[in-house]
Amino acid sequence: MDKKTKLRNDWTKQEIEEIFNQPLMSLIYQAATVHREWHNPEEIQISTLLSIKTGGCVEDCSYCGQAARYHTNIKVQALLPTEKVIEHAQKAKDSGSSRFCMAAAWREVRNNRDFDRVIDMVKGVNELGLEVCCTLGMLTEEQAIRLEEAGLYAYNHNLDTSEQYYEEIISTRTFDNRINTINNVRKAGITVCSGGIIGLGETNGDRISMLLTLATMPKHPESVPINALARVPGTPLENNPKVDTWEMVRMIATARIVMPSSMVRLSAGRIEMDETEQAWCFMAGANSIFTGERETLLVTPNPGVSEDMQMLTTLGLRPKKRAEEVWMNSL
Ligand code: SAM
Ligand code: DTB
Ligand code: SF4
User: Fold this and answer.
1) DSSP secondary-structure letter at 77?
2) What residues make up the domain containing 214?
3) Which atom of ligand 3 is nearest to the CA of 160?
4) Is residue 329 part of a domain?
5) Is 137 touching ligand 1 by the criterion CB < 6 Å?
6) Residue 125: which CATH number?
7) Which DSSP state fits 67?
8) pLDDT in tens, 211-260
9) Does pTM top 0.85 for this prediction?
10) Catalytic residue list
11) Is residue 141 part of a domain?
12) Is the distance from the beta carbon of residue 230 to the nearest atom of ligand 1 less than 6 Å?
């Protein structure tokens, strides 16, 4: 593929603002063009998400159904047994996933037996030949190195929102804490998955500022999840308005243009979109989704695997293979 656009890490806020504020159809056209320069537009990465430890979290993220302090109807679930996790990963592989992401409702990783068990899970999923991802909260550099040695491919740690708006949403940690963990992941040689959420009450300026932080990192995150707020009853944001699909499209398209080589993941919010709305997100440069046999993301509904496969067929799309598999097939 002939790469016309260049990777840039020196974007200014004004440049991103100009891209973001274009008339929508022009923005989508530009994003679709960049997408075709860097990616095969017929391929969608399928990432299966599994909550390995649910609820009871000490943090106060005001969007999250798993924070212990909110009264949310979520069933707390201790760390799943390793064998169960491996069974889920095998099913994910059988149904076409190339990546398996294990999520824990932890503030941070502690050096205890639960972490030892996660290390075993990472080894087991890696042996199945899936790209292994984890999202476990804050990490030290030493912990990141242990995960990398166990075979971790990616670590998800979202900025969530802009630096300026961060303290309106979370008070129990800082934006700098987030950046610090992302730096630890990079130093350990693990790929970075980092994006955010729209619909938290932030302005367009906050959305642009979050994209600016991501797009001016020395290396862009390899994956950029864009989530629409899933409004969980009992959380402080339960009554926020539903995110309009065109706002997701605008956010995805801008992310695609400023971080052309990254996988842009259409994450939370798909359950409230029909196929046509999701197709616009793919046209605007999204090339990755979360799916799972449980038909949930972590604690909120998500389309099921068969529904997703049907949608891909309708749209003439197909699951993207793991990077390593593509390389081996070319030998
Ligand atoms: N506890 C870890 C952490 O916060 O990094 C890992 C799991 S946490 C649930 C992963 C990410 O999911 C959050 O950073 C946030 O971006 C996203 N998320 C959580 N609840 C959400 C919601 N209700 N709507 C949209 N995205 C959400
Ligand atoms: C991400 O960016 N989105 C996923 C994943 N990373 C861990 C989580 C979305 C959670 C949506 C609400 C829920 O089910 O808790
Ligand atoms: Fe805890 Fe993560 Fe939810 Fe925040 S987003 S409350 S850290 S599980």
Assistant:
1) B
2) 13-320
3) 5
4) no
5) yes
6) 3.20.20.70
7) B
8) 999 999 999 999 999 999 999 999 999 999 999 999 999 999 999 999 99
9) yes
10) 57, 61, 64, 101, 133, 193, 265
11) yes
12) yes
